[in-house]
């Protein structure tokens, strides 16, 4: 190799760089000091001027105040993107994980091949947990390629999360993108060889044409989102679930492939589904005796499942720790407040519904005499007609004028496959895309009777005859009046559009109303929501209402913009209600209690029974357990089928209908309750038996403390941002723990650094939030936020460049007189570089990492009395109590700097101690992988860099 060794400093292209181990004789691979892997550059010494660089000592002519040392240290630590700790990726990602989110990562690092089922509750952050594991495996070299399998509706969100939070650029592989991607391939090249990281639609890739190519070229790391939809639980599982399960079995068969299964509902009310998931993770788990200690130990290393109560307060004395110094409180909404509001049908609407029920009953009866296929087609047409009528006049009119999807079926079985998705609300729907269209009720050519019913339905639009709409207006106005920002969920696209139109007319110009339905692509939906939020924020005193179908009931996070849910249409599976409510009831929601209003018809024959038997029971179980327990689809559909049968019988055979209601409906309701209660008891028992005990709280606490010591604590970041912005002439407007900063008057260099990450317009104040969960356009007060990083970069660069115009909050030197010391004390900000050898199953990887430490001594450098780390940190909190003569300060600083070479031996030995601590930490988190632990090596690069030196003197008259 060239004369430049790995870890050494060189100067090229007008800046200083660190040489990386990948360098060769004719090519240097360089990373800027404090930079990330994204900043790495290749330089050819034969063509460019490259020379050795030594880090310049601080200058006594550039003195700062009593805040300078802390500002320099914080800016340095915030800017680190290649930390030396055992979690290689944490310094470089753009999200600051909660302490509890490190648990799955620590579990994963104890496995040579990572196999995990992550089943934390809705809103806890499973995407972040999976992303942490993925970014760490990629950073360590244990994985080279990544595939995320998810529904097409969530693909763009996964792509954005990977890119913005973890720096992983993944290509979307969907039915809508694959043709364009394939046109760019070389002859014989696989799509999955061309693109190392991909987000793939599970429904697209399971097809025979693409499945084999994917399995053959499958990445060595696979994440499966909503994994419960990809397993077969029994003989009634859908054909689509069967295809997905076969695909995952083939992926899991490669025992060297990392596999992360992510789902909040691993049981779905079915033990067989849970076992199928476990079998994908580890075949032995499919048949393991989980009631035994041996079975639980086997499962514990691969399964993590926690509810909100488990993580709301973490690393406290409640977890067995000695004190609360590392305690982390995660704010979730305290509860959901439910309110069920009834409405009645107007006489005209009542007459239309009765006539429609009579018509549907006649068709079902007549079809039953013609054959099973005809009977099933008529059945699905009847359900479609009844559901759309109960939904809205517009949905009813469109359904009456649209041919039933089931009418094209050639067999009874095919009729069920076509009719069920559009009329039922399965918890395990193959995908929510396309299921919010009006289902259609026509069986043959359009008839006069259907046309007449459609015309009557259309005439009922408006609050005069549609009393359900009138009830909605009343409830929405009440929510808005109390300061809530509601989402109105509808079953069908025509209903959502109808509701949005009338709400917009009734609520006035100061209330912005927006419909979001399946007519928009997933990306357009997010864009429409962001536009709605921006509109209402820009208009003083305005309010906002989102009207949506169930295309938004899964995967989309809406807690930043909305805080209440109104169910305009009852779902026929209560899990769908929980999914809707979960869009706002999650981490980052600022409202303590999420309001949920459910509208139901008291006299339409359907809503009351669905609410009583399914919805309320689901709420009660959730309240008792603290989590949701799904009711099996076939059980909930058994109840709703019975309700529909009763309605159809009521007009034709009233006496039979009464008996049917008493016996059949109550019998099926009792069966549902019994099975549901059984599932709830199993879930409760499993939560106790399978509680996460693989990683103990004290183990997490030790690693969290190490990470925070190396990269900074949240309080340090908050203080740095406020102090730096204030020193740079920003105007701060407090808002509780949050604040807004007007940066229009700050130096041009800072504005140039902030513009790309803020979003352009710096004339508007930038909102800084104490919570890590922020909306678009806001900045989180965490070290990994891009806005915070840009600010730290400017402060650090200006500290090293005396020619920068305008204020410079951080300086490399300072002399402070303070009553906090009794003798002269010198604080050093020291940067260490470490050589790491990290073996993985793909081979040995050599890295160079950085760390910053505070070291302090009393007296002269030649006779230094070194202080403890805590005493050194305490110096940062001292303030100047007397002014210091500038000439005296420069003379004092010069003497100290001239004597610093005497400290080289201590700095070197301290670096060796740090290397030993890092080695122990790396080994600790990999404790279960013996061969990987034995191969880890950490050595300190010498000499260390003294970035800053600050002298604290006692008040005049004290020892100096």
Describe the overall structure.
- With 960 residues, the chain is of the alpha/beta class.
- Helix content is 44%, strand content 17%.
- The strands form six sheets. A seven-stranded parallel β-sheet has the order 9-10-8-11-12-7-13, with helices on both faces. The chain has a six-stranded mixed β-sheet with strand order 6-26-30-27-28-29, sandwiched between helices. Strands 16-21-20-17-19-18 form a six-stranded parallel β-sheet, sandwiched between helices.
- β27 and β28 (843-858) form a beta hairpin.
- α1 crosses α26 and α26 (714-727) crosses α28.
- It is elongated.
- The model has no long low-confidence stretch (mean pLDDT 84).
Structural class: alpha/beta
Given as residue ranges, the uncertain stretches (5+ residues, pLDDT < 50) are none
**Count of separate DSSP helical elements:** 32
- Total count of strands: 30
Provide the spatial order of strands within the biggest beta sheet: 9-10-8-11-12-7-13
Summarize the structure.
With 960 residues, this protein is α/β, with parallel strands linked by helices. The chain is built from 32 helices and 30 strands.
Which helices and strands occur, and which strands form pairs?
Layout lengths: L8 E4 L2 E5 L8 E5 L8 E3 L7 E2 L10 E2 L3 H12 L22 H7 L6 E4 L7 H15 L5 E5 L1 H15 L4 E3 L4 H6 L7 H4 L2 E5 H4 L2 H9 L4 E5 L13 H14 L5 E5 L8 H11 L11 H8 L2 E2 L3 H4 L1 E2 L13 E2 L5 E9 L3 H24 L1 H20 L1 H8 L11 H12 L24 H11 L8 H15 L4 E4 L3 H15 L3 E6 L5 H17 L4 E6 L15 E4 L6 H9 L10 E9 L5 H19 L7 H20 L1 H36 L7 H15 L2 H14 L3 E5 L2 E5 L5 H11 L7 E4 L8 E3 L5 H15 L12 E5 L7 E16 L2 E16 L6 E2 L2 H6 L11 H14 L4 H22 L4 H6 L1 E17 L7
Parallel strand pairs: 6-26, 7-12, 7-13, 8-10, 8-11, 9-10, 11-12, 16-21, 17-19, 17-20, 18-19, 20-21, 24-25, 26-30
Antiparallel strand pairs: 1-2, 1-5, 2-3, 3-4, 14-15, 22-23, 23-24, 27-28, 27-30, 28-29
């Amino acid at each position: 190799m060239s004369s430049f060794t790995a870890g050494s400093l060189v100067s090229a292209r007008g800046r200083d760089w660190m040489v990386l181990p990948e360098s060769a004789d004719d090519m240097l691979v360089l990373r800027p000091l404090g930079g990330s892997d994204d900043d790495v550059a290749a330089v050819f010494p034969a063509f460019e001027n490259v020379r050795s660089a030594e880090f310049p000592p601080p200058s006594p002519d550039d003195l700062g105040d009593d805040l300078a040392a802390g500002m320099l240290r914080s800016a340095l630590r915030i800017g680190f993107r290649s930390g030396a700790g055992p979690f290689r990726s944490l310094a470089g990602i753009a999200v600051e994980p909660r302490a509890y989110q490190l648990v799955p990562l620590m579990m994963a690092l104890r496995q040579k091949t990572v196999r995990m089922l992550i089943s934390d509750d809705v809103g806890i952050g499973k995407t972040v947990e999976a992303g942490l594991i993925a970014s760490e495996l990629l950073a360590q070299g244990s994985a080279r390629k990544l595939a995320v399998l998810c529904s097409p509706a969530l693909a763009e969100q996964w792509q954005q999360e990977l890119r913005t939070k973890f720096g992983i650029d993944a290509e979307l592989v969907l039915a809508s993108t694959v043709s364009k991607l394939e046109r760019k391939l070389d002859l014989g090249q696989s799509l999955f060889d061309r693109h190392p990281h991909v987000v793939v639609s599970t429904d697209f890739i399971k097809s025979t044409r693409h499945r084999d190519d994917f399995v053959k070229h499958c990445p060595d790391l696979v994440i499966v989102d909503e994994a419960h939809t990809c397993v077969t639980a029994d003989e009634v599982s859908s054909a689509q679930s069967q295809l997905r399960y076969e695909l995952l079995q083939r992926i899991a068969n490669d025992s060297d492939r990392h596999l992360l299964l992510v789902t909040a509902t691993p049981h779905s009310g079915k033990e067989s589904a849970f076992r199928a998931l476990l079998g994908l993770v580890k075949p032995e788990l499919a048949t393991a005796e989980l009631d035994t200690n041996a079975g639980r130990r086997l499962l514990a290393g691969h399964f993590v499942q926690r509810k909100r109560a488990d993580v709301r307060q973490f690393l406290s004395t409640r977890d067995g720790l000695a004190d609360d110094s590392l305690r982390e409180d995660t704010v979730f909404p305290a509860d959901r407040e439910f309110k069920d509001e009834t409405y009645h049908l107007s006489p005209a609407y009542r007459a239309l519904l009765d006539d429609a029920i009579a018509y549907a009953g006649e068709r079902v009866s007549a079809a039953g005499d013609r054959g099973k296929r005809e009977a099933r087609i008529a059945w699905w047409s009847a359900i479609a007609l009844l559901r759309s009528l109960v939904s809205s006049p517009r949905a009813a009119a469109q359904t009456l004028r649209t041919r039933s999807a089931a009418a094209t079926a050639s067999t009874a079985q095919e009729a069920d496959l076509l009719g069920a998705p559009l009329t039922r609300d399965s918890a395990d729907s193959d995908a929510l895309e396309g299921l919010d269209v009006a289902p259609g009720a026509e069986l043959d050519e359009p008839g006069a009777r259907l046309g007449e019913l459609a015309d009557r339905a259309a005439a009922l639009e408006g609050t005069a005859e549609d009393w359900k709409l009138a009830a909605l207006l009343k409830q929405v106005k009440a929510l808005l009046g109390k300061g809530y920002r509601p989402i109105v969920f509808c079953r069908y696209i025509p209903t959502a559009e109808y509701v949005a139109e009338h709400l917009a007319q009734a609520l006035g110009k100061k209330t912005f109303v927006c419909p979001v339905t399946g007519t928009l692509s997933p990306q357009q939906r997010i864009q429409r929501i962001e536009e709605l939020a921006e509109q209402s924020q820009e208009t003083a005193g305005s309010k906002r209402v989102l009207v949506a179908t169930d295309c938004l009931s899964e995967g989309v996070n809406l807690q930043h913009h909305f805080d209440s849910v109104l169910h305009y249409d009852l779902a026929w599976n209560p899990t769908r209600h929980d999914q809707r409510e979960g869009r706002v009831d999650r981490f980052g929601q600022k409202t303590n209690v999420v309001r949920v209003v459910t509208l139901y018809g008291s006299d339409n024959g359907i809503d009351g029974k669905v609410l009583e038997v399914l919805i309320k029971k689901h709420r009660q179980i959730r309240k008792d357990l603290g989590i949701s327990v799904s009711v099996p689809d076939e059980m909930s559909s058994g109840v709703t089928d019975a309700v529909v049968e009763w309605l159809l019988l009521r007009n034709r055979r009233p006496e039979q209908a009464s008996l049917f209601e008493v016996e059949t409906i109550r019998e099926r309701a009792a069966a549902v309750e019994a099975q549901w209660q059984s599932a709830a008891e199993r879930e409760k028992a499993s939560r106790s038996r399978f509680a996460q005990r693989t990683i103990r709280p004290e183990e997490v606490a030790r690693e969290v403390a190490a990470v925070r010591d190396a990269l900074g604590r949240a309080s340090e970041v908050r203080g740095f941002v406020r102090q730096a912005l204030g020193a740079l002439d920003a105007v701060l407007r407090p808002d509780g723990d949050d604040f807004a900063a007007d940066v229009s008057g700050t130096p041009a260099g800072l504005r140039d650094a902030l513009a790309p990450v803020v979003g352009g317009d710096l004339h508007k104040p930038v909102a800084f939030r104490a919570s890590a969960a922020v909306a678009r356009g806001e900045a989180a007060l965490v070290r990994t936020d891009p806005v915070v990083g840009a600010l730290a970069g400017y402060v650090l660069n200006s500290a090293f460049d005396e020619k920068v115009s305008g204020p410079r909050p951080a300086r490399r030197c300072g002399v402070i007189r303070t009553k906090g010391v009794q003798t002269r004390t010198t604080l050093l900000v020291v940067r260490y570089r470490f050589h790491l050898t990290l073996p993985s199953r793909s081979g040995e990887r050599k890295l160079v990492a950085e760390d910053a430490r505070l070291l302090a001594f009393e007296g002269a450098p030649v006779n230094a009395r070194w202080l403890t780390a805590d005493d050194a940190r305490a110096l940062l909190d001292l303030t100047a109590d007397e002014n210091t003569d500038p000439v005296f300060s420069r003379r004092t600083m010069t003497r100290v700097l001239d004597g610093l070479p005497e400290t080289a031996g201590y700095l070197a030995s301290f670096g060796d101690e740090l290397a030993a601590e890092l080695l122990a930490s790396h080994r600790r988190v990999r404790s279960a992988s013996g061969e990987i632990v034995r191969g880890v090596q950490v050595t300190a690069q010498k000499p260390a860099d003294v970035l800053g030196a600050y002298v604290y003197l006692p008040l005049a008259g004290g020892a100096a």
